[in-house]
Amino acid sequence: MSEHATQDARDRLAYLELQKIPNVGPAVADDLLRLGIRTVEELAQQDPDDLYARLSALEGRKLDPCVRDVFAAVTAYAKGEPARPWWEFSRERKGELR
Q1: In CATH, what number is assigned to the domain containing residue 19?
Q2: Does residue 21 contact residue 70 with C-beta atoms inside 8 Å?
Q3: In the structure, what pLDDT confidence band is assigned to residue 1 with cuts at 50, 70 and 90?
Q4: Structural domain boundaries enclosing 48
């Protein structure tokens, strides 16, 4: 198996494993892979605001703030907090802005 095929297989496995995290579907799993995140352990070391800024930079535009809230939900879960829907983090973010 070539190095490229081996990496593709690892990425596919990571893509499927990331989707086992609450609030992570195919699009978020793809975003996490683009950001270099392949495991829950790596995700636990991340800051949601940093992930949001990095993904916005990759996209070349400021993304919807709800993307940041999804990152907040998944990093909190990866750090051992109970699973919560991402929109609860939206409410918290909006409360902080007032």
Answers
A1: 1.10.150
A2: no
A3: low
A4: 3-97
Instruction: Answer yes or no: are the C-beta atoms of 63 and 56 closer than 8 Å.
Output: yes
Per-residue pLDDT of 9-67, as tens digits, reads: 888 999 999 999 999 999 999 999 999 999 999 999 999 999 999 999 999 999 999 99
Look up residue 33 and give its amino acid: L
Domain count, the chain: 1
Burial 71-95 (b: 16+ CB within 10 A, else e): bbbbbbbbeeeeeeebeebbeebee
> Taking the CB of residue 39, how many other CB atoms lie within 10 A of it?
13
d(Cα 77, Cα 22) in Å, to the nearest integer? 8
**pTM to 2 decimal places:** 0.89
